[in-house]
């Protein structure tokens, strides 16, 4: 167990901060064009996959009782990303809409790279920030989500996904044999509705209308509208199209990660709409060292669901017999998910082995696979 005196050192936090330099790849890509446009995905997905092969798994755990005061450098990494992303998105809109050396296809290629970073880094950081009790950090999370037009994710994640993961009420728990592309379309429609209903129910318990000013959807809409107007003001209709494209790429990556994190894993139905409590074995874990630097330990996902408020440097990893382990980190696993036959060949045997290990008494999984079990009782 690593103590605070070790964790708090700048050199231990520094690898997580390397992502701050990634916008340089976007800068080179947009100024040079051509083959340089592959630099953002090459420097994230592929580079960190290669580094995982070199650095391997990292199974040490920090003392989970370390105070926030000892985590300054880690918190700083997540808090300074919003201004970086803001300048990256709108600065590139300004540049590419005013330059003539890039074709229209190259401009959208450049914004594919922008979306790679606003998704791989921006949404992951917003996820960390939205889980904190500090109001400033939560606002930074909201601002990051507004720049990818996915603000409802905060509500859906906190009020639906965490309480109901592994059940039929959670849209982003991917079902066994459900291909990513079908999952993606389903989630795009179901998650916003689910988030709205969750906020509506919470307001109703307070005796308030769903349209009361206390509903965060007013804030979500205002921030997203401001983000859109800024894109149009800087780059016109082309600027808006480029902005929307990077938002789509970012959301596509988020849902790829959601797909990987819980594919085929379900909580046992106890009857009468009751399910067992969330345990580490209800999330796929990946303690690969380098990709956890990039994704600020998001891959230690089993512990995140077990202790959602725990800050990322303190997330624990578990032995393989307590939490199912992915064969590779998220970068390569999400790429595999894009090709369903490859994904099923890799993951379906692991899901079946997980069932035998944790639920040998369950002989009929058809209702779990079809998603036809009754939804859990709303809390």
From TrEMBL:
Predominant location category: membrane
GO molecular function, one term: metal ion binding
Domain Fatty acid desaturase: 114-334
Subcellular location: Cell inner membrane
Transmembrane annotation, as ranges: 12-29, 35-51, 72-96, 108-126, 225-252
EC number in record: 1.14.15.3
Coiled coil location: none
Gene Ontology cellular component annotations, sorted alphabetically: plasma membrane
Pfam families: FA_desaturase (PF00487)
GO BP, one annotated term: lipid metabolic process
Membrane disposition: Multi-pass membrane protein
InterPro entries: AlkB/XylM, FA_desaturase_dom
CDD domains: Alkane-hydroxylase (cd03512)
Keywords from the named record: Cell inner membrane, Cell membrane, Iron, Membrane, Metal-binding, Monooxygenase, Oxidoreductase, Transmembrane, Transmembrane helix
Family: Belongs to the fatty acid desaturase type 1 family. AlkB subfamily.
The protein's name: Alkane 1-monooxygenase 2
Species of provenance: Aliiroseovarius pelagivivens
């Amino acid at each position: 167990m690593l103590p605070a005196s070790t964790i708090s050192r700048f050199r231990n936090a520094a690898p997580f901060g390397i992502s701050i330099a990634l916008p340089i790849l976007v800068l080179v890509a947009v100024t040079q064009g051509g083959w340089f446009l592959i630099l953002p995905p090459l420097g994230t997905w592929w580079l960190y996959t290669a580094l995982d092969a070199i650095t391997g798994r990292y199974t040490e755990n920090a003392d989970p009782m370390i105070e926030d005061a000892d985590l300054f450098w880690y918190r700083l990494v997540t808090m300074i990303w919003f201004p970086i992303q803001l300048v990256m998105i709108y600065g590139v809109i300004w540049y590419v809409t005013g330059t003539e050396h890039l074709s229209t296809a190259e401009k959208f290629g450049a914004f594919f790279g922008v979306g790679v970073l606003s998704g791989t880094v921006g949404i992951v950081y917003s996820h960390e920030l939205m889980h904190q009790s500090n109001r400033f950090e939560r606002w930074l999370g909201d601002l990051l989500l507004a720049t990818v037009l996915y603000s409802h994710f905060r509500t859906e994640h906190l009020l639906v996904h965490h309480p109901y993961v592994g059940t039929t009420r959670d849209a982003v728990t991917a079902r066994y044999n459900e291909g990513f592309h079908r999952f993606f379309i389903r989630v795009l429609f179901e998650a916003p509705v689910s988030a709205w209903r969750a906020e509506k129910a919470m307001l109703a318990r307070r005796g308030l209308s769903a349209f009361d000013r206390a509903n965060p959807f007013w804030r979500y809409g205002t921030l997203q509208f401001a983000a859109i107007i800024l894109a149009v003001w800087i780059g016109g209709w082309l600027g808006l199209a480029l902005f929307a494209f990077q938002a789509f790429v970012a959301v596509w990556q988020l849902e790829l990660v959601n797909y990987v994190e819980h594919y085929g894993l379900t909580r046992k139905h106890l009857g009468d709409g009751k399910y067992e409590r969330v345990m580490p074995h209800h999330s796929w874990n990946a303690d690969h060292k380098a990709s956890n630097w990039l994704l600020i330990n998001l891959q230690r996902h089993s512990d995140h669901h077990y202790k959602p408020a725990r800050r990322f440097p303190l997330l624990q990893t578990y032995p393989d017999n307590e939490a199912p382990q992915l064969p590779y980190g998220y970068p390569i696993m999400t790429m595999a998910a894009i090709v369903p036959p490859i994904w099923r060949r890799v993951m379906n045997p692991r899901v079946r082995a997980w069932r035998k290990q944790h639920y040998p008494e369950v002989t009929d999984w058809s209702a779990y696979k079809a998603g036809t079990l009754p939804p859990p009782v709303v809390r």
